[in-house]
Design goal:
Rossmann fold
Length: about 230
């Protein structure tokens, strides 16, 4: 384990697993980070036998790589098809739970050593809130950010004291509308966890429309602001 991480790194962008039959490659591309990213941070911040958690498990990249490298994977996933597909390929399949990640503390998870995740993204102009499955009563970007803060506040109770959390994010551009998602989510999480660093990841052999991405590093240092 080497916790000194530079602010700029270069990693290969290659999706090593085939998309599940119910998703297209483009859907997988937009919802998945490459295995190289997970391996990099697991090597930096964990050791074999550590408990690794992904509150937005998605297509399981964090969980798969964790298990392949001798870590113990745990996670939450709201989409039933995805949850079942990922669990079917894990040895520690009971570590993945289907449901609302905001209710993670309702499950019998152990205390986690490390977290790596990429939450569902939302543009400012969107109404449907992905953290509430599009519930119109909870629509809008402000509700999305508030819910994200709440989720990470719950997560802070699940992660061991001084454990590290990596959050993968991108800023979003839709026509003339720009969403500073990295800043907005980063600011929200910073009220419940200690911000440590922003890491820019430049993709080697990535697509022209996606040359780099952002990873925010937090430490679970007991910060919980109102």
């Amino acid at each position: 384990m080497n916790k000194k991480t530079p602010s700029l790194i270069t990693l290969p962008f290659k999706l090593e697993r085939e998309a599940p039959p119910f998703e297209t490659y483009d859907e997988q591309y937009s919802d998945k980070y490459p295995e190289s990213l997970v391996r990099y941070f697991l090597k930096k911040y964990t050791k074999k036998g550590d408990y690794v958690f992904d509150p937005f498990a998605g297509l399981g990249t964090t969980l798969f790589v964790s298990e392949e490298t001798g870590r113990i994977p745990y996670g939450m996933e709201a989409d039933q098809n995805r949850a079942e597909w990922v669990a079917s390929q894990l040895e520690n399949w009971t570590g993945l739970r289907h449901g609302d990640t905001a209710k993670m503390l309702h499950h019998d998870f152990p205390k986690m050593d490390f977290v790596m995740t990429s939450p569902p993204f939302m543009h400012k102009h969107m109404k449907a809130n992905p953290l509430y499955s599009g519930d119109p009563k909870k629509s809008g970007y402000n509700n999305y950010i508030k819910r994200m803060r709440y989720i990470f506040e719950q997560l802070s109770k699940l992660v061991k004291r001084n454990g590290y959390i990596i959050v993968h994010l991108d800023n979003l551009q839709h026509k003339q509308s720009f969403t500073p998602l990295v800043w907005d989510i980063g600011s929200a999480i910073s009220t419940v966890m200690k911000p440590e660093k922003e890491i820019i990841v430049v993709w080697k052999n990535g697509r022209d429309d996606y040359p780099y991405t952002h990873c925010l590093l937090f430490k679970n240092a007991g910060i919980r602001k109102k």
